[in-house]
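Cullin-associated NEDD8-dissociated protein 1
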Amino acid sequence: MANIAMTGILEKMTGKDKDYRYMATSDLLNELNKENFKADADLEIKLSNIIIQQLDDVAGDVSGLAVKCLAPLVKKVSEPRVVEMTNKLCDKLLKEKDQHRDIASIAMKAIVAEVSTQSLAQSILVSILPQLIRGITAPGMSTEIKCECLDILCDVLHKFGNLMATDHELLLGALLSQLSSNQASVRKKTVSCIASLASSLSDDLLAKATIEVVQNLRNKGTKSEMTRTNIQMIGALSRAVGYRFGPHLADTVPVLINYCTSASENDEELREYSLQALESFLLRCPRDISSYCDDILHLNLEYLSYDPNFTDNMEEDTDDETLEEEEDDESANEYTDDEDVSWKVRRAAAKCLAALIVSRPEMLAKLYEEACPKLIERFKEREENVKMDVFNTFTELLQQTGNVTKGQIDINEQSPRWLLKQEVPKIVRSINRQLREKSIKTKVGAFSVLKELVVVLPDCLADQIGSLIPGIEKALSDKSSTSNLKIEALIFTRLVLASHSPSVFHPYINALSSPVLSAVAERYYKVTAEALRVCGELVRVVRPNIEGIGFDFKPFVHPIYKAIMSRLTNQDQDQEVKECAISCMGLLVSTFGDNLNAELPVCLPVLVDRMGNEITRLTAVKAFAVIASSPLRIDLSCVLEQVIAELTAFLRKANRPLRQATLGTLNSLIVAYGDKIGSSAYEVIIVELATLISDSDLHMTALALELCCTLMADRSSPVVGLAVRNKVLPQALTLIKSSLLQGQALLALQNFFASLVYSANTSFDVLLDSLLSSAKPSPQSGGVAKQALYSIAQCVAVLCLAAGDQKCSSTVQMLTEILKHDSSTNSAKQHLALLCLGEIGRRKDLSSHAHIENIVIESFQSPFEEIKSAASYALGNIAVGNLFKYLPFILDQIDNQQKKQYLLLHSLKEVIVRQSVDKAEFQDTSVEKILNLLFNHCESEEEGVRNVVAECLGKIALIEPAKLVPALKVRTTSPAAFTRATVVIAVKYSVVERPEKIDEILYPEISSFLMLIKDHDRHVRRAAVLALSTFAHNKPNLVKGLLPELLPLLYDQTVIKKELIRTVDLGPFKHIVDDGLELRKAAFECVDTLLDSCLDQVNPSSFIVPYLKSGLDDHYDVKMPCHLILSKLADKCPSAVLAVLDSLVDHLQKTINFKPKQDAVKQEVDRNEDMIRSALRTIASLHRISGGDCSLKFKNLTNEISKTPALWDKYCSIRNE
């Protein structure tokens, strides 16, 4: 049936009437696009012939449809037919007249785009390549034919370049010869053709191409347009092959720099192309270009202001007086614009400089000295597009400063932040001049620079605010301003208001508030929303504290209220505006409520109404939290009952953020207005709360328990206590057995038990009993988790303290009884009793209970490990309660009891760690005693003992730095390796995140500890690596200065050392032990930390090859951190990773294709699964780098993954994480 219809269509296609032909071709297109279309051999021939014939149809729309028919046809007919069609099209290309040639070229491209199988591609290439090469190189071919052939060849190479490896040399020769063609269009298309070919060329051929191009460049007699083409060629090559161009930089960079400086006055394009090529090198060959960076920087700075046709004789600091004259100046300069293309050079220089900034974090300090002043000066650029590029480059500089100095507090004189701070006045002066310009685009760019500046240096504009206000005012109120400009100006205003102290703005509130309030009434919703956010900040600034001293805020209250209220009551507007208006009104009421008494009955019901709407309810709940926590005690009587009822209902909703916000708001409301809410409302809330307490959502649990405590604080009502005991207590006793319980939820649970004792009708004994019995192992679930015992013990201690001294001592009595009865059978009971004694003893002095220390120390004899460790924990914590009595006892025992030493040292550690956290002091005599004792144990054979000693020393160093740092330093030269390792680990324990007084004492001595990284003993080297890791994580600024010396030594620790690998003979088989494994793992983890905190010191290129590369092929434990490092580098220094991507692919490929042995145990299989997922996660990060496609190996790797179903599923799930 189909074939009969086809015959009819084919007949009409050859008819005389153009409309018939058009309709018939259209019908054919529809037929071909049907899924079930099939053609026999005869029909195939007819179809392909007729469509090729239709291409030459005199009616353009018919031939256009015929081209569209080609795409489905290629998929539906056999290979020989497609090859035949391409041959015919090649003939037309090379022989036909112009108009037919155009359509043949379009048709050819359409076919190439549709070829999807390799075999078909191969057949087509065999037939068309020789013809295309002939079209390009044969003498007498017209320029048009050459251009068409080059266009098609470019598409073919891009898609199938790696299928024609045998023809690469022939193709390259043919194309290189065209670079010297006299026709500019031919040269231009040849450049893109060679670039498409280059990505699949072998290294030898790539070198051949580069050498030839460089040779042409060196040839002094070449015409300048040829030189330009060759420079473009170099840039295109480097963009196409990325890091593979690295080895040729030594030949090319000096030539390009030389051309830039020696080109004739009017050869701007030559300079532009040279700078573009250098930009490409910076981004794609970061490792090999490093030695030329300084030269490139100076070249960029020179050409950033290259403007030979324009003399800038205006004074630097023009102010308002010269504004009127500027308009006449513009017409005077206009004549240069058409013939003057020097702006292209300036733009290329700005972009090249941006590439330098992005790819060289280690040059930041130098860039601030040399490039920053120049960039600020160039804000006055007269060509607007170039000015935008200058702004972008400066923004890159600011962002890079932010990246490199993330998390650094103190600013020394060499740090990029400090250098930036010095430039702020200049930046603002220059930007202010831009904000007076007429151009909207310029102003938007200027605000985006200011915005980035405030993000990187939050409080840097305090002295400059006054000068910026007119610019903001003008941007917001000028008739010609666009929404885009207003939004940028408002975002900047909001950031500035949020990051500076309120008093800075008080002189300018008048000038600021009116344009912002008029922006609230704008029609475009994004402007309105942004203006409302600014209003929120403005409210905070106008009245920073309740006293409102020093600034009269009253005149601003009603204008702001009116502006917001008009938006709040308006229903038909964007959701973003509604939400901003609600939040803003919440802030306004909580800040100015005492001046809005008449307005509250109007605006509060509107907010309650918004709680009823599903879209705005979350925002409204948060707004009420802000109002409830206001120190003004706003009068909510008109809406309170309704709000509480709504909120209670929200606790049942499935929406988690809503439940979370509701718990917080209820808490604030009950704290502030508890006396006005009836106990019946409390009961309903408690019933809802009970269902939210479980270990599946600890954050929610913590909030629910906090609310419970708030409810019980009102002790007058017995109903509440009863409801809590019946509904919430059972949930709490289930929760306490969870091994996940920690942090905020655990603290909330402790407070809950304390509040429960205070609250009416809940007896202490019943509570204590239920807590202790929750530790009993149940027949269904077996024993209670170790973590749960600690949680129970902490709650028991809090409960005892809340109940008062008498109950507390009776409980201690009971616990010691449990320990006295020799119950080595029931170990859970003993375990809990010891932990409870420790927790109570830490919070309260137990010296009134005679011999409690001896009772605890008896448990050191227990056969159970956990009882022993609980006893040492208990002894240490009891000592914290009364150091004077118990510390000498512990020290004495350590000296006399050799067997119990490890446990006693743990007790001592508990004491010292608690003291260092609480900033308490020891007596001098006991410090001396402790130190002698600890230093005697530095050389212990047991690693466990050495670690405890190191932690004790580190934590004492926090309390007594002046004594300890010298004592530790002396021992870095001790002949015993274990002592050297112990003191370095001690230093590691003394470096904590918060600032401590040890920091300045330790700073000058750090190198004597960290330089032990070159010690001959591996334990000492590992200790130094771990210490460096901790420094880099907690106090990077202390070690930054040492990194140039330390990094090479650290990298050396990542290498597999043959001398550390030994074979142990186990009789029937030999076992290989690698003693260096832990050290290598630690070294890679240290580099991982350094990438977060000291990126500007690490030169990633020198680390990736060879160190990271060898790590990717190391043991399982080393590969894991290496994968993490590679992912991090792909994100932070993509250009350095791209530069060596090919060499890393093999190791990743090996990892994802590794199959464990047949007899491998489950643990090995699981580890290998983790390994594969880790490698795939890295591949996913590499995939996100732009420009990764120029690595053929990486492309093939991702193709291989997509064809392996098992890997592809994992890869997809990882990318969706």
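thats it. The radius of gyration is 39 Å. The longest strand covers residues 1061-1065. bye
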